[in-house]
Amino acid sequence: MNDVLSPPAGNRETPPIPLKPLGKVLAVTSGKGGVGKTFVSANLAAALAKRGHKVLVLDADLGLANLDVVLNLYPKITLHDVFTGKAKLEEAILQAPGGFSVLLAGSGMVEYSRLTPEVRNEFLRIVSGLVPHYDVVLLDTGAGISDVVLFAVSLASEVLMVATPEPTSLTDAYATIKVLVGQQQRQTVRVIVNQAVRPGAGQAITNQLQQVLDRFVVTEPGHPVRLIHMGDIPLDPEVRQAVMRRQLLMQTTPGCPAGVAIAQLACKLEHNVIPCPA
Amino acid sequence: MAAPTDSRLIELHALQLDDARALLEHDAKSSRQEAGESPTAYLQRVLDGLCELSLKDPLTGLGNRRHFRSVLERSIEAVARSGDSVLLLLLDIDHFKTINDTHGHLAGDQVLQSIAGCLAGCVRPMDTVARYGGEEFAVILPNCRPLFGRAVAERIRQTVESLPIAVAPLLSVQVTLSIGGAYAPEWVRSTADLWLERADQQLYRAKFEGRNRISLEQPQELSVSAEEKGLLFGQLGLDEAAATGMASDVSHDAQGNVTNRVNA
Fold first, then answer.
1. Closest to A170 (Cβ–Cβ): which among B198, B220, B232?
2. Which of A1, A52, A137, A159 is most buried, most CB within 10 Å of its CB?
């Protein structure tokens, strides 16, 4: 009968790196691809940096990373080299134009787009290693509900769900929220509506999502799901201009409607989400 | 400055080890310093013995709640790293109070001990069996695929059901178990408390559905139904269409008018 008691003394294993605190890790995710997730991550990071925060964006979309394209940065050393042990974590971090740091996935990460124990461990090690050095770590995750995306989101204390008003984007956002609530017992998801065509659209969409969730997603008693509408980014031709030029909107035309909206989002995040430095 | 040797040497005679020794002796462990055993090695042995005692349930010899809790927390971290499938079972003896009331508390203790031995015999050495509360036990099964989990739970249920427990000369009783189970969440976010709560809900269900049965948490239905889709953008679709219709008017109209009309 003593077999069942794992020996409390004798085999003293070294404790693994604690998983917490990951309190200032924000996951930027979306149900559907192409809704501007990476655009939001990069420009939000620039807006937060402008407000004096030390920010890092991690390209957590291992399979189809494109933060490098958005930022027009093609470094020699990337996350891939950290994963394969060819480079140290600090060697892969570089300064992005907007005054924040980035860790780019780099090509070759496709082989790590399956959630093996190795990927889990590396991911955990990297994020835990980054957290102490930044005020905010933004995880630019992939779209959808693949294992890697869900794992990356599970590392974050807050989820920023980017959606556009199109039905497909909303359905996918809804499906993703449903999985996050069902599998990760997440209670709060923050919604950012991109390419909003009229004022109030984002709030209406968030309310609608909340209503359907309340009706169809059974949560455990005492753990209700709450969606928080963080803000809208209006449909703005300047965004397309900046993206095509591969520059940050917050650098080229921060005064355009979308730029102002992103600055407001950063302000709201600062007040509600980002923990005050101790 | 004190001489460095003073702080480094342990004076065994100066330590009050009587209580610790008595506890170890009571648990059938040698508590005397052996010939040739260094004071450090001896003290380490005493401390290890005490640690072991602090994790054990004295009545059944299983892990106690403290031990269970630490394994549970370690498991949840390990799962986040490995993605392993780890099952937590909570097992409660049905109508245990009746046994205590009818045959006395010594008989109750006898039942607890027999069930503990039976549970330990039903699982692999790598599994953790603990006494969680009065008549409640817990089993943590690492590396346990869903089909296997149900099979283990069923084996435990059947073995206990057919186990005669002698509580007095010429008197034996039989008891049954209600078993609830939930798999460890694969994600970093979750906590041991939430996991425990989920297993507890299943145990409650097993009790509610008539006892002597197993209830394991089923994976949630996470696809989006047509009804959900309809509700999701039924109303919004109309709003958006209206807005888009007006968006083409924006060139003629002031933005404020658009907002007014949509809200009207």
1. B232
2. A137
Asked if the Cβ–Cβ distance from B185 to A185 is below 8 Å, we say: yes
CA distance A204 to chain B (A): 8
Average pLDDT on B181-204 reads 88
Residues in CB range of B65: below 8 A, 6 or more apart: B130, B131, B132, B133
How many angstroms separate the CA atoms of B91 and B139, rounded? 8
**CATH code of domain B65-216:** 3.30.70.270
Quick: pLDDT tens for B213-255: 999 998 777 788 888 988 887 666 555 555 555 444 433 333 3
Catalytic residues of B: 135
What is the rounded distance in angstroms from the CA atom of residue A139 to the CA atom of residue A38?
Answer: 10
Which sequence spans correspond to the domains of chain B? 15-54, 65-216, 226-263
Task: Tell me the shortest Cα–Cα distance from B129 to chain A, in angstroms.
Answer: 6
Q: CB distance B237–A115 less than 8 Å?
A: no
- Residues of chain A positioned with their CB less than 8 A from the CB of B67: 5, 8
From the number of C-beta atoms within 10 Å of its C-beta (0-12, 13-18, 19+), residue B204 rates as: middle
pLDDT in tens, B75-95: 998 888 888 899 999 999 999
Contact A239, A232 (CB under 8 A): no
* Closest CB from B48, B83, B129 relative to A4: B129
Please, are residues B75 and B183 in contact by the beta-carbon 8 Å criterion? no
Q: What CATH number does the domain located at A21-272 have?
A: 3.40.50.300
The alpha carbon of residue A266 is apart from the nearest alpha carbon of chain B, in Å, by: 24
ipTM (interface pTM): 0.78
Q: Does the pLDDT at position B160 exceed 80?
A: yes
